[in-house]
Amino acid sequence: MRIMTPYTASLRRFTDNIWSVVRLAWQEDWRLVTGRGILKAFSAGIPAAQAYLAKLLFDALSAGYGSGDSRVWWMAIGYLLLEVLLLAAWTALQSADRLVNTQLDHLLRYGLTRRILAHAAVLDIASYEDQQLQERIQRISDETPRRVQEVLGALFNVAGEVVALLAVLFIIVRLGGWYVGLLFGATIPAILLGVREGRMVYTWGKAWTRWYRYADYFRHVVLLPQFVMEMRLFRLGSYFVERFWDSAQTFMRAYFWLEVRRQQLFALKTLLPVLGYAGGLGLLARGVVQGAVTIGDAVMFIGAFKAAQGSLGTIAEAMGNLYESYLFITDLQAFLQLSPRLIAPAGARVLRPEEPLTVTFQQVWFRYAEDQPSVLRDVSFTLGPGERVALIGENGAGKTTLIKLLLRFYDPSAGRILINGTDLREMDLVSYYATIGMIFQDPMRHEARVREQIGYGDVAALHDMARIREAAKRGGADAFIDKLPGGFEAHLGLWELEEQTQKLSGGQWQRLALARAMMARASLIILDEPTSSLDPRGEQRFFGHLLHGLNGRSGRPTVLFISHRFSTVRQADTILLLEDGAIRAAGSHEELLRTHAGYAELFEAQARWYQ
């Protein structure tokens, strides 16, 4: 039985992670990866060839010194021309390498970001509510694309410098083993110091970048327009500026002492190769004096030894960068290995478009974690096709959690949710979601044109202007859209990505969200307090547009909505009163007024506010 030591296991993880980066780059574009490798290999051998040409040149000049032989002159000119050609070739290779490298860097940055986004888009909703995963995703999105570029660049640099080093060593070894020993003896410690520096930077980053994020947060709070009114009203501007400066100073002090330690390591990494070079030059001078080494050999040694030290120095720096970036790439590998748990099984039931839905909750219990109390307790009810059901209850009663279960963002801890008699866990989610229209409490305000804002309700019909106009009319958004400069082509959004971005009120954004929901050919429409930011009259208009838009459709969809206003709630066919995670009462408005004292008290208490 093989026992893997901690060092071997760490080396194995390091190697696996580094090669995973190569695979990622290869999958993005193998031609660019191959091209850069070839360019590096060709350019890497040029310094050794230049050193050898210098030897030939000076040996020829030494041999012809004072002879007046014109052949020596022409031989020297030939060597110089070859040197110029090598320099031209090196310049062309470097330019081509930079061109390929720029393209590869962009491809990796955006290609890897695309891969991260695509993977994040399929993870369970529960994953986004895990604080540790949120921090990991933040680190990945901020650091990984850059780190992958650095790893690939370091690998190419190491490979190229290894080729250059081998070529130079072939020259140096001709002078004797002492020179090779001095070269490596002075440079290997520098490589180890580079690895230590990489580990130090990563450890420091985990401990101290929190203060950088704090400074960045306060900078955004002071500058972003959505916070400016509250900042002015509560006089928080100068306080937050001071908090920004305190956080920035804490970060700067910590970074200064990190740099002190890094510069100490830098001094050691620089001094050791210089000592090796001085020792080699001393041996070489002795050989020249004794006649064992020619002037050409001396010139060749100087060029080759410096080239070799440059290669080893680059390798040392690259190894430090590799080790530092490897620690960040570990986060990427762990993230990409995450997989969604809430997936449909093979042979899952596929719903037909606009198929009427009957939704049944059977003794459903739910808790977010084993060590937390149940949020829903023994919930049972049925939503019939075309029925309008209001879900009411105090904040924290479990209303939004019930909606999350209905959308299968989570699975029940106990009990079942049936869709037309089939357990929701056995349903094909793509076809299921296609039958649902949803308006959230805080709907997304996209950076897009009006027609896109609405068309996102059914991406397959994103360019179907007839459907988009119909959805806008049913959602009550057509009146203000017609008044916008550009109409359906007007650009909206908070980021103002285009110069002529239009601004909308909260109610207008809500009507756009309603129009977006109308794009879906929904059998079930869910409204999670979408009118919480509207006044009572605005809410009545909103629901009036909604119900009017649905009345004109064949096969009236089921509507499930959450609201705290009884003027809206009383329009429901059935009202479900949720208290402490359990259904305490169910019936029409009139039935509950007669049979449930708690509901009647809530209604009377709210009614008094409008007297």
How many distinct folded domains? 3
Helix content: 55-70%
Low-confidence stretches: none
CATH classification class of the largest domain: Mainly Alpha
The CATH superfamily of the largest domain appears as ABC transporter type 1, transmembrane domain
| Largest β sheet strand count, sense and barrel closure | 6 strands, mixed
- Going by CATH, the architecture of the largest domain would be Up-down Bundle
Work out the oligomeric state of the chains in this entry.
single chain
Q: How many H/I helices?
A: 20
Topology-level CATH name of the largest domain? ABC transporter transmembrane region fold
Q: What percent strand?
A: 5-15%
Q: What shape does the CA trace take?
A: elongated
In which order are the strands of the major sheet placed? 6-9-10-3-11-12
Mean pLDDT: 80
Structural class: alpha/beta
**Distance N terminus to C terminus?**
84 Å
Q: What is this structure, in a nutshell?
A:
Helix 17 (536-551) links the parallel strand 9 (524-528) and strand 10.
Distinctive features:
Rossmann fold, ABC transporter transmembrane region fold, alpha/beta, 4-stranded antiparallel sheet, single chain, elongated, about 600 residues, 20 helices, about 65% helix
